[in-house]
Amino acid sequence: MSAFTTVHLLRHGEVHNPEGVLYGRLPDYHLSERGHLMAQRAADVLANREIAVVTASPLDRAQETAAPIAALHGLEVGVDERLIEAGNTFEGQRVGVGDGVLRSPSSWRHLWNPFTPSWGEPYEQLARRMRSSIIAAKQLAPGKEIVLVSHQLPIWIARLNAEQRRYWHDPRKRQCGLASLTSLRFTDDDLTSITYTEPARDLIAGASPGRGA
């Protein structure tokens, strides 16, 4: 008998970031009040699903997004370093073109190759670690549903990898909103569908863009 397993890749909610920096992997960047509401929306959408595992990036915002889902299903939130945000040269700095680090010519040397990208963790490396996390999670609970809480770029690269699309892309066109779900459905080991939903879409309209989601 075939096992139908779903791995939900959940992006965390809005982050409190009044300085407007690229927070990346920095500690102590927590969900804003609206971010907690977004996390609860995701939990509500998954409340009646057969969630067997909830695992998150070690970063605060991901752990806090996972918490209400785990609580609803009587689970502990696991930690998987493979789900962490992508490394970025400009972490901790403002990155706006008009008022940030990109105004400085000394920063331009990091921008020479958008295909890799030259300013951060290579897309190929991101794809490998996300794929490894997805496979491991799927093996933990065949025939059930798993939630992996991660960040915008890792989730988007995981989707491009699953769809066998090129990794180089326009960041403005990523389909990975705050507290969104990118759901990969498997029949045994075969990926059979990918769906995308935004449980907190109405809250996103008023959300701050953040940096380094």
- Give the biggest beta sheet: 6 strands, mixed
Q: Uncertain spans, ≥5 residues at pLDDT below 50?
A: none
Number of helical segments with 4 or more residues: 5
CATH superfamily: Phosphoglycerate mutase-like
Cα-to-Cα separation, first versus last residue: 39 Å
- In terms of DSSP E residues, the strand content is 15-25%
Outline the secondary-structure elements.
Elements: E1 4-11, H1 33-45, E2 51-56, H2 60-72, E3 77-79, H3 123-140, E4 145-150, H4 152-162, E5 181-187, E6 190-197, H5 201-204
Parallel strand pairs: 1-4, 2-3, 2-4
Antiparallel strand pairs: 1-5, 5-6
Helix pairs in contact: 1-2, 3-4
Could you give a quick summary of the protein structure above?
The protein has 213 residues and is an alpha/beta fold. Helix content is 28%, strand content 18%.
Describe this entry's structure for a reader.
This protein is of the alpha/beta class and 213 residues long. The chain has a single domain (4-204), classed as 3-Layer(aba) Sandwich (Rossmann fold), CATH 3.40.50. 28% of the residues lie in helices and 18% in strands. It has five helices and six strands. The protein has helices at 33-45, 60-72, 123-140, 152-162, 201-204, and strands at residues 4-11, 51-56, 77-79, 145-150, 181-187, 190-197. A hairpin with a 2-residue loop joins strand 5 and strand 6. Helix 1 runs parallel beside helix 2 and helix 3 (123-140) packs across helix 4. The longest helix has 18 residues, at 123-140. The radius of gyration is 17 Å and the shape is globular.
